[in-house]
Automatic annotation (TrEMBL):
Keywords, alphabetical: Membrane, Transmembrane, Transmembrane helix
Highest taxon of the lineage: Bacteria
InterPro entries, alphabetized: Split_barrel_FMN-bd
Protein name: Nitroreductase family deazaflavin-dependent oxidoreductase
Transmembrane feature ranges: 13-34
Lineage summary: Bacteria, Bacillati, Chloroflexota, Ktedonobacteria, Ktedonobacterales
């Protein structure tokens, strides 16, 4: 039996719409498009993510291990797109002990996303509860990709 939460059926359709609007140059809210090479095929896989801005750094959080999380762990880089602007970035997973302060920002910066954490993880929507969920919620930081790693090679964890 899987411990993976079940996402709403309509989410795939909404994600495709957000991606399409973004590719038309329409970036809105906290939404960015994160594209990461598949760990088996190498084909770029895209998903909308809400980017948090904390102390001049950019982060993304998720409530459980998704395919993009597995891909990010394996390849360590991706493309972050918002509207017409696109950049290659290193995707660096934070250790559990560093996740709390970033997770506590999620309810403040992405209040519309809190309900998914509440429903899928049975997590109250307050910052302290999010910080306490650090062991089960992956958090990644986006760093500028080193110039010598921009050719699509696997990036060592920085």
């Amino acid at each position: 039996m899987s411990t993976q939460p079940t996402l709403p059926q309509w989410l795939k359709v909404v994600n495709r719409l957000i991606i399409a609007l973004n590719y038309l140059g329409i970036g809105f809210g906290t939404w960015y498009i994160l594209s990461i090479p598949g760990r088996k095929t190498g084909k770029m896989r895209s998903t909308p993510v809400s980017v948090l801005h904390v102390n001049g750094q950019r982060y993304v959080v998720t409530g459980f291990e998704t395919q993009w999380v597995k891909n990010a762990r394996k390849v360590g880089w991706g493309t972050l797109r918002r509207g017409w602007k696109q950049e290659k970035v290193a995707v660096v997973e934070l250790p559990v002990e560093e996740r709390g302060p970033i997770l506590s920002e999620f309810p403040r910066q992405v209040p519309g996303g809190v309900e998914y954490f509440e429903k899928l993880l049975n997590l109250p929507g307050d910052p302290e509860a999010f910080a306490a969920a650090a062991p089960r919620c992956p958090v990644f930081r986006f760093d500028p990709l080193p110039q010598n790693a921009r050719d699509g090679q696997q990036v060592a964890h920085l």
